[in-house]
């Protein structure tokens, strides 16, 4: 009896776990918020004030919901070329004449909001490939409540989901109720491409649960056209190639070829990776060849060590559970972003190569290393001196009034119109020739007497005096 009781408890526990997975894990929630009252939707992070000037991008291409809590009054509004303003049933939008000093508010979102964009959906582990982050045919889709604005560009390819409901409703739309949405403005596309899947195929425990059937290449290409520009740097040494993933995958993978139920493998994976829940995320998926694959990805930046431990622990747990593991691999060591070094490396490498060749040539022709270095230093000095000379093309000289000058700009303090001896007259002019103290003559400026009537006079002395006087005047003229 005890054995049967324990077996019964395990069966009940397994049923409870499966029911929890069925009601929670496979729901995909639409994320974009398009409400006017959401501050993050505005470029400055603030909701527009009364009498503001509101500007929408020209390519908005989606609907914007204006709340009905109060009437909205603006001084001016720049509407987009494409897009909608969704007012409440009795809401009003007023324009005032108060345009002076109006505060400008800009709507931050632009472009379409794609159903096929993985960033627009929540409810899947970050370890899941991009194809499975958007709603698959075994998923329950949850759209915003009836009082929220919805604007979605449907996929080009026809896809299937299990059910669709609003977040404020418990029951999903019936298939015919959902078909009535095809004429509504919330969904932009020529064809209504989202359909309900066959109830027999849209089960969580099927043996061939592919996201959108056997042929998924068209839908995957539509998803990757949106996702590839976001891939960025690959931070692992040996990135994995994962089915349905648009970028190289830095993480771990454990694969079994056995065609087991997804729920069976997922329960074992949850038990094996429970201790790593704070560090890694994992996702159990149906491989395209019918096997089962568990993908593991770190929640923070890739380090490699944690992934290695988690993959090894999961492999051992699956083996002990009787599940044959075919592949257990990781993406290797972590890599740092060195794209800048890779870009600039060839330029600096080429410069160093040229310098090395020139040095080898000088040494080959008999120049010593000292000669080469001294020549380089002289070249650097000449360039530096040339730069300094260019910077000093323009300068200025300092001029001042001096007592010994015969021309002055203004009166020199302590001097009159005539010197103390009464013989030298100072002329004051606005401009002209005057003394420059930077180039002042070293010669004595004292007046020389040509003749001394008290001394003996001879022709030789008279000739010498005259020659000296003429020579002094010539030197003054040169200065």
Notable traits:
single chain, 479 residues, alpha/beta, Alpha-Beta Plaits, 4-stranded mixed β-sheet, 4-stranded parallel β-sheet, 9 helices, 29% helix, 15% strand, disordered N terminus
- The parts where pLDDT drops under 50 for at least 5 residues are 1-25, 414-421, 444-448
Shape: flat
The chain-level structural class is alpha/beta
Sheet of most strands? 4 strands, mixed
Average pLDDT confidence is 78
Whole-angstrom Rg: 45 Å
The main sheet orders its strands as: 8-1-9-12
Strand content: 15-25%
State the distance separating the first and last CA atoms. 129 Å
Specify the helix fraction band: 25-40%
Order of helices and strands: HEEEEEEEEHEEEEHEEHEHEEHEHHEEH
Number of helices: 9
Let me know the number of strands: 20
Explain how this protein is built:
The structure is a single chain. The chain is of the alpha/beta class and 479 residues long. It contains nine helices and 20 strands. Strands 8-1-9-12 form a four-stranded mixed beta sheet. The longest helix has 26 residues, at 339-364.
